[in-house]
Amino acid sequence: MRTNNFFSGLKARIKQFFKNLKESKELPVNKNKRYFFIVSSAIIFIGLMILIIFGFNLGLDFTGGTIITVRMGEELETTLIYNQNLATIEDILTENGLKLSSSQKQGEGTDAAIVIKYQDIAGYTDEEMNALGATVKDQIEDALNAEHSAGFRIDDTQRIGATSSGELLLYAMLALLATMVLVLIYLAIRFELVSGLVTLIVLVHDVLIMSALVLVFQIQINSPFIAAIITIAGYSINNTIIVFDRIRENRTNEKYKDYTHARLADMSVREMLTRTLYTSFTTIIVILILTIIGVSAIREFALPIIFGLVSGVYSSTCIAPSLWALIMDKREEQKSKKVNAIVVKPEIKPAE
Fold first, then answer.
1. pTM of the prediction?
2. Can you tell me the distance from the alpha carbon of 306 to that of 227, in angstroms, rounded to the nearest whole number?
């Protein structure tokens, strides 16, 4: 019964939200903050559960693996031939206990090739994987030569270690941490400490939402995922700062001096909503096109970016203003209590 009441109330509030969007100069963001917090918490919780049960779908950039370039020349001119050759290669990998991580056509005409990637087998040493790789290479050459009666060969075989990617992830996280500290200092000086803290909370929120959705859709994580996190950090900070800049301007306006923090935040969000939607969703459209027509490596970067951009719009318009108003109200409440707690001691006259 409570669940039904919750969703019924949520549906009604969504309808009211869009109605107010058309009619009012303010958005009922703070009025609905409980629902926004619940939605964010639910997505992060689901992602956490999937992480605990299944873990990330790590690609060979983090697990280690091998890249093989099979030069096929004009035999790859048609999609049918490409798919047939790829199926043959994938069967050979499966027979040797390996799993195809990704594949991509490279070059045109006589330079056309299939670039395939497969991950290391858990527990295998580098020597064992090198020996297995040599076997796989010979089997692929034999199979393709038998099918096409041509002197096909594997041009390049490259091993990728997981250690370098682990170091890259560490450096990226350190860079992100340093950015957060510098952003906090800047915002504390430019705006106020509360705005800086809320911006960092929203940044962490967007990264967690993006990671949770990557877990839900089991998108393979490789080095582009690190670039996606850093990119989303920039978008998230930019969107949030713009909203806080408008809040600061409205707070200094004598016209709105009697407005509550919640009303100031709602009005500021409404004033910046059109700009935020235009800039963010035009970017999303471009990346969505890349996702549709791009190769798997591009999708590994583009899909997390889309998740992060949507989360950035949501957090900068719904989470950040609500959280800012909530913290500011708490601060004023605490200040008021401290003032009321001050007891003026009566003056004690010396005894005559």
1. 0.78
2. 13
